[in-house]
């Protein structure tokens, strides 16, 4: 057999562990939420695996989570009989952090630590630390696990320092046990006594009530009658234990199920509290912050489904990375089928989190089947419309929340202008853009149109790298002088969609940097006509000499009506690509 080895944590993992040990996260109770959430995921995975692989030698007869307390040893064990892990899994999943954006997160965190502890808390909340949160309450953690269908178990142990030990485990049952060796109790810290059944019951109820697997705990006296749903006796392992200890006369301790196990999305809307939604959100999203908005929808009849979706309040670090995951899980008749269901949400809404539970799909449904499934396409269409209309409602009902949403996810939403033609108008409706009208506050297109000057036909915009470069652009001068509002489009994605979208609400988008500008009214035109003719004559020689000497660089040199203070500017032809887009193409090697 393999001996016990001591291995180093990956450096990112080590840094995160240090954070947890010197915990700056004030809500310690959340460690239990994380461990229960992992246990629940492990049970989901096992059930799914047995659907996929009929030959898998696994026991699925009584899938559950179990909490065990040993007051004398000061340990708390969170045990599940789910999928478990083999040695490689443990090294890769527990000894390493594979999350994208980790390095970036740690840099930000280091920068924030010296300043304000609340920023660090915020960042941790944004990142989520999962299993490592155990070290907020434990000075040593032992993990014993065996992967379903495999013979050899694994024992892992660490005090959260630079290394951990890993070796074989004798007689490890299927699934995972996490044994927390709790830190010494502060004498008067009643609030954080995780050996107290009352405390554990409260924490599970608060954070994990909706978990669809039973979370059980042995209790000295049988549970009160109010929790009649609980199996009060004879859990299989309790029975085994009792057999082994034949000399003991006393009754096996009763097992209480701590959670109600009700799927939130299946409960009537008005019976679910916002706190319950929030905790559920944290479970499905692995986010530690509260969601910004909760969305429910359901369909009955020939194709029945329920959806419970969330808009997060913060963008994940990997939102713009290639492997960014989509956040909607698919369930079929309350059974978890898959994470990250691409078929249910388009890429530009990848930040939406939650669950869709379809009643009429097969439990064996695969990605290939989903791609072809007409019903799934219908659900997707409805989800998209509902998400867009929810955001639109936010704009008027909760403007501050909308502003948060837009600054976090606007760039992703705008990708939809290039990919979702059916909803283009609806997407434009929820966009907002920085504009010369107000330094501080971006404007929606509707608001822009309402402010349009009499006779103004187009929505004017200018693209550029930054607000400042746009503000300082000579292209803007004439528009500003005449009091026209111009949108300042600074996101890279703006360059892409603006050329392919005709307009909004019947108004075309018009770049102030392209083509000829003609901002004069009819009146002004008449009076300036003679003046212009004169100027053309005066400058004819200069213009032709400039055209000659710059013939390599420009197509034409002409007198301009767009400048008020700058002497000259470069403009593109109406159909030219903009300089920023040109830069992007070049960067992409085209
Ligand atoms: P996350 O849950 O966000 O992936 P965690 O730090 O909580 O991050 O867990 C890391 C990984 O370790 C999980 O994704 C899972 O693969 C594995 N893991 C953790 N706990 C368990 C468990 N009880 N059973 C099986 N695998 C687990
Ligand atoms: Mg987790």
Explain what this protein looks like in three dimensions.
- Keywords: ATP-binding, Chaperone, Cytoplasm, Nucleotide-binding, Stress response.
- InterPro entries: HATPase_C_sf, HATPase_dom, HSP90_C, Hsp90_fam, Hsp90_N, Ribosomal_Su5_D2-typ_SF.
- With 590 residues, the chain is of the alpha+beta class.
- Helices cover 37% and strands 19% of the residues.
- The protein has 18 helices and 20 strands.
- Strands 1-6-5-4-7-3-2-8-9 form a nine-stranded mixed β-sheet. The protein has a five-stranded mixed β-sheet with strand order 10-11-14-12-13. The protein has a four-stranded mixed β-sheet with strand order 18-17-20-19.
- α2 crosses α6 (197-208), α4 (102-113) packs antiparallel against α5 (117-127) and α10 (374-397) runs parallel beside α12.
- The model is unreliable at 223-249 (pLDDT under 50).
- Magnesium ion binds next to α2.
